Amino acid sequence: MKLIINGDARDFPAAPIPFTLAALVEILAMKADRVAVELNRDIVPRDRWSETHLNDGDRLEVVHFVGGGCFTPQS
Q1: How far apart are CA 21 and CA 13, in angstroms?
Q2: CA dist 31 → 25, 26, 36, 58, 74 (Å)
Q3: Could you tell me if 63 and 35 are in contact, meaning their C-beta atoms sit under 8 angstroms apart?
Q4: How far is residue 24's CA from residue 30's CA, in Å, rounded to a whole number?
Q5: Interval 15-73: pLDDT, tens
Q6: I want to staple 22 with a disulfide (CB 3.0 to 4.6 A). Which of 8, 39, 49, 65 is the partner?
Q7: Which of these, 1, 25, 23, lies nearest to 11 by C-alpha position?
Q8: Beta bridge partners of 60
Q9: What angle do CA 34, 22, 14 make, to 5 degrees?
């Protein structure tokens, strides 16, 4: 199966059937509680990932939430 993830074409020849969004997040070794996913321009709520089937050619945008940083007060 070919998916477009963040603008890059990726092949998943050994994708499980059905290939769900939850399975993709696991295959990509992402922490589910730190990721938001848009599938074909629609945000998919995390509680629906296991029932959201992916199809050849789907376009996904995956955003990682990152904490941290440094606060520098302005003078």
Answers
A1: 16
A2: 8, 8, 10, 21, 34
A3: yes
A4: 9
A5: 999 999 999 999 999 998 899 999 999 999 999 999 999 999 999 999 987 776 666 67
A6: 49
A7: 1
A8: 5, 39
A9: 125
φ/ψ of 26, rounded to 5, equals -65, -45
Strand partners, 42: 39
Residue 24's nearest CA partner among 43, 65, 52, 47 is: 52
Q: Could you give the CA distance from residue 10 to residue 5 in angstroms, rounded to a whole number?
A: 7
**Which residues contact residue 5 at a Cβ distance below 8 angstroms, ignoring those fewer than 6 apart?**
60, 61, 62
Domains in the chain, start-ordered, CATH in brackets? 2-64 (3.10.20.30)
Q: For residue 71, what are its two tokens?
A: 């606060």
